[in-house]
Fold:
Amino acid sequence: MRIPAHSVCTAIRDDIVAGVYERGSRLTEELLARRYGVSRVPVREALRTLEAEGFVVTRRHAGACVAEPTEQEAADLLEMRVLLEPLGAARAAQRRTEAHLKVLRGLVRLGQERARRGNSDDLRSLGGWFHETLAQASGSPALTSMLTQLRHKIAWMYAVEASAGPVESWAEHGAIVDAVARGDSERARAVTALHTERATAAHRLRFGSAGERAERVRNSQHDVNTASLRH
Structure:
């Protein structure tokens, strides 16, 4: 059975974002194939995709390596998100479906409930699903893809400090959905811009120690060769 390259790509990207592979470290096809339980063919395809996304670079005499973004490149990503997230929300107000609204409203209910109870363990993942669904509701595959890549890269380069106001944050999510549901693109754009700018202030560049990276390696064991990929 041939494991899809996109599944291998997702597994490698997740490990890069989690810090399993140190920036600048080599990514050899043989070792990656062994780690993920696949042949070298999907690994090679995955590395090409990750290079196009900016997670991997190819160096002379070294081959594929984890990229080493500069602080300016990292700052540019946050600025790009501040510009693109509001655009996605404005488009969503014009193009969303009832299915999108149902998911968005459900996520807001869950997020607001957990925020009120002070249960912050899964608020970050709920927030990620919210923004992913909002991007999909824009009806623009290109914009959705760009926003998804931005979120992956920002998660890789930045640590996000615990929100001082999760209740307020999820109230903003609710306001975004209300504007999208009404088809008010300008309101959706404005509320999302304020929300994104406020969230940006909580981002801090990552600087993990070698010991922390080693711990992540021990705790992260992906195997993409699972039954779920056989369907």
User: Anything to note?
Assistant: The longest strand covers residues 56-59.
